[in-house]
Amino acid sequence: MKVGLQIYSVRNRMAEDPVGTLQKVSDMGYKYIETYSHPEGRDEKTFGFGLPVKEAKARLDDLGLKVVGAHFYPEHPEGLDEYCAYYAELGADQVGCGGIYETEMAHKAANLNAAGKVAKKHGLRYYYHNHYHEYRKVNGEYIMHIYAKETDPELVAFELDTFWLARAGLNPVEEIKYYGNRLVLLHQKDFTKGLDEPISVFGEGRIDRCEPITPEIMDKYRRQDVYAEVGTGILPIQDYIDAGNEVGCPYILLEQDFTTMDEIDSIQTSMDAFRKFKGIEWD
C-alpha cells in the first residue's frame, strides 16, 4: 500500500493558508491526498481546497500531489454532480462520504447507490467511510454489513477507519478481510497509551450496541486525548497494513482527527513512524 494524507489532519493550517500548507505536505514527502468538504457547506464551491478547479489542478500538478479520495457530506446531497465534476477534472479516481447518524440511516443503502450512479457518470468510484456508530446491531447484524449487502458493488466501495473499528470493539484485520476487494482506502491514526479509557465504546456500562446512537452519544465518547500519532499508541498497525496488502487495498491514509501537537509536527511524527513499517510505499 502507498501512504497518503487526509487533509483534515491539517485543516486549521489549510483554513489559514491552503497553498502554503499543501506545499509543506508535499515537501514532507506525502504525495497522495484525500480532501474533505465542510458538512455545513462553507466551501461548497471550492470542495476542500479553497481554490477554483483549474487553479487547484495547476497547484497540485506543480506540487506533485495526487488526489486519491474526497469526502462530501451528506451522501447524496444537491451539488454532488458538480462536486464529482470538480474531482474528475482534478484527475481523482473516486469520491465518497463519511459517517451518517442514526436518524439518517433508514434509506442509506439506496442513497449510497444513487450517489454511486452520479459518481460513475463522471468516471469516478464512490465509497463510504465508517465511524463506530455503524457497528451497532440491528436485528443481530452490524449496520455496516447491512450497507455492504444492500449496496451494488459496482457502485459503492468502502474506506475503513481502523481506529473507529477498534473503538467499535471489532478486529480491524477481520473487517478488512470482510470487505475484500471493495476496500479502496484505509484510514489510520493511533490510540493513546496509558489512558483510563477502554478502546471499545460498547459494553461495560457504556453504549448498548443494540440501541440507536445519536450525535450527542457519539460526541460523548469522542475524547480528544484518545487520538495519538501513528506509532505512538497501542494499535497493531503492522497487522492492518499486512491485511490491507493481502486484499489489494492501494492506499493507507493518515487521518489525525485531533492532536496536542502542531498539525505539521503531528503529520511528520506519523510519517516517521510509517517509514518503519513493512509493506508500504511512498511513490
From TrEMBL:
Domain Xylose isomerase-like TIM barrel stretches: 22-248
GO function term, MF aspect, one: isomerase activity
Superkingdom assignment: Bacteria
Keywords, comma-separated and alphabetical: Isomerase
One Pfam family from the record: AP_endonuc_2
Keyword hit for Isomerase: yes
InterPro entries reported for this sequence: IolE/XylAMocC-like (IPR050312), Xyl_isomerase-like_sf (IPR036237), Xyl_isomerase-like_TIM-brl (IPR013022)
PANTHER family cross-referenced by the UniProt entry: HYDROXYPYRUVATE ISOMERASE (PTHR12110), INOSOSE DEHYDRATASE (PTHR12110:SF41)
Protein name as catalogued: Sugar phosphate isomerase/epimerase
